[in-house]
Amino acid sequence: KVTVSVLYWVSCTPTVSDQHMQSILRVPAIATLESVRSLFPKSVEELKSLADGASAAAKSDVDAIVEAGKALDGAEAPFALARRVDLAAAEFSARVSVIAVVKNVAVDKALRDAATEALVRLQNESIDLFSSNRDVYKVFKAVPQGPVPAGPEAASLAAQRQYWLADKVAEYERDGHGLPDEQFKEVVALKKELTALSTKFMTAINEDTTTLVFTPEELAGVPEPIVKGLKKAAEAPHACKEEAAAKGDNALAVGMDYPTY
Predict the structure, then answer these.
(1) Record's InterPro entries (predicted)?
(2) What is the pLDDT of residues 176-194, one digit of tens each?
């Protein structure tokens, strides 16, 4: 979802050229169905290469941003430096979301397992590189609210920047950056633990073959697109055949996987 939205933004933003957008946000453009297919790794080796590449690119970007921030030596940071943080995070998120798709839909269990392992690692790296990186937080704190390029939209642009910067600083402070070091370390450890548990939970849900049988009447109130996507209970391999027969030919099988769960 993140990948599609980011790529859509790159390809459809009307105010700048495609070439300029590609230089701003380094993600592949989607022009054909084949280019969509090429986004997703087909083997464990390809997946590991994608994960390692995402990690290396994000670390390189953040290291450069942090060094630029330290070089200011207490002076005000330019708005463009904070913007680089956001773009680096967006690129990283786009690459990670591809791995999340593989984790959820790949037919090969070995590939799904590799994606799960990579996803936990990359989510932890995201915490270290972005949301819990105190050097990155200092960059945002050092950015003044202006000036902005002169022109008819200057006032609107200034207000947008002010809102964005205030929102980003508040987001970092909600992540614990106002806490003493020891408490902050506890917050970071808890975030990583919750990330791992959440991924493990969703994996267990997706792998669970538990199947319940319902009549269409019993599913009243369930969104129609979900009901239409359910298999007939008689055709579902893990549904109780006796219960399916008892509830009639129109009985439906409901699994534990997303989105039915």
Answers:
(1) Neurolysin/TOP_dom2 (IPR024077), Neurolysin/TOP_N (IPR024080), Pept_M3A_M3B (IPR045090)
(2) 999 999 999 999 999 999 9
